[in-house]
Amino acid sequence: MGRLLMLLLLLVTLAWLTGCAASQPQRADNICTILDDNPRWYDYARESEERWGTPMATQFAFVRQESSFRHDARPPRTRLLGFIPWRRPSTAYGYAQAQNPVWGEYLEAEGSFFARRTHMKHALDFIGWYNNNTHQRLGISKQNPRHLYLAYHQGHTGYRRRNWENNSTLLRAATRVERTAQNYAAQLQECEERFQCRRFWQFGPFCDA
To answer: What backbone torsions phi and psi does residue 112 show, to the nearest 5 degrees?
Structure first.
C-alpha cells in the first residue's frame, strides 16, 4: 500500500511539473497569438505590471530576446578542443535567463523560495522586480525598454560604468527589445480586451478591464 501511494504521488508530481511547462509559441512576432496559446501569461504579466510597473509589452520583449519563449533555455556549452562539449558560459536559465546570484537575491528579497525560472509567472515577476530596482538605482524610466534591457544585461554596476557603449552586439539586441516592445504594445491595443474578461465571472464590476 505504501509503495502504491508513493507511486501515485510521483505520478501526480510529474504531471504537475509537466503541466507547468507551456509550449513554445509558434509565432514570437505577435503578442496576440502568443497569448491566444497561453492566456494565463496575460494574467502573470498584468500582475507583474501592477506590482512593479514594467509594461506588459516590455516584459514579453525581454522574454523573447532572452529565451525565445523556451522555458528551459540555457546558454550553449563551450567546446573544449573545438568539439568536446564543455562548461556553459553562465548560469542563465529559464524564460528570463536569470543567473544564479541575482535569482538568489530575488528569492531572498521576495521570499519566493518555491519560484522557478521555468515558470512564466515567476520569470515575469523577476523581470518586473529587476527593472524596478533599475529604476530606483539608476533612474531609468520604466517606459524605456532599450536602457532597461542594457541594465538588465550588464547589471547595474556594468551599466554605470557604461560597458555597453562599445558593445555593438548588445546595442543591437537592446534596439530589438525596444522595437519588439513597441510592436507588442500596439498589438495589445487590438486584442487585450479578450484576455481581460475571458472568465465566466468577469463581467460588469467584476471585470478587471
So the answer is: -95, 65
Please give the model's pTM, rounded to 2 decimal places. Answer: 0.84
User: Side chain identity at 110, as an amino acid letter?
Assistant: E
Residues 6+ apart with CB under 8 A from 194: none
Tell me the three cell numbers of residue 19.
503541466
Question: Model confidence at 143, in pLDDT bands (50, 70, 90)?
Answer: very high
Question: In sequence order, what E strands does the chain have?
Answer: 79-80, 84-85
Question: How far is CA 5 from each of CA 10, 12, 18, 19, rounded to the nearest angstrom?
Answer: 9, 11, 20, 21
E strands, 102-150, are none
- CA 134 – CA 155 distance, rounded (Å): 9
CB burial of 99-135 (b: ≥16 within 10 Å; e: otherwise) equals eeebbeebeeeeeeeebbbbbbbbbbbbbbbbbbbbb
Could you read off the pLDDT of 176-201 as tens digits, one per residue? 999 999 999 999 999 999 898 765 44
Query: For residues 130 and 67, what is the distance between their CA atoms, to the nearest angstrom?
Result: 17
The one-letter amino acid code at 201 reads: W
How far apart CA 150 and CA 12 sit, in angstroms, is: 41
Provide the residue type at 25 as one letter.
Answer: P
User: How many Å apart are CA 87 and CA 46, to the nearest integer?
Assistant: 36
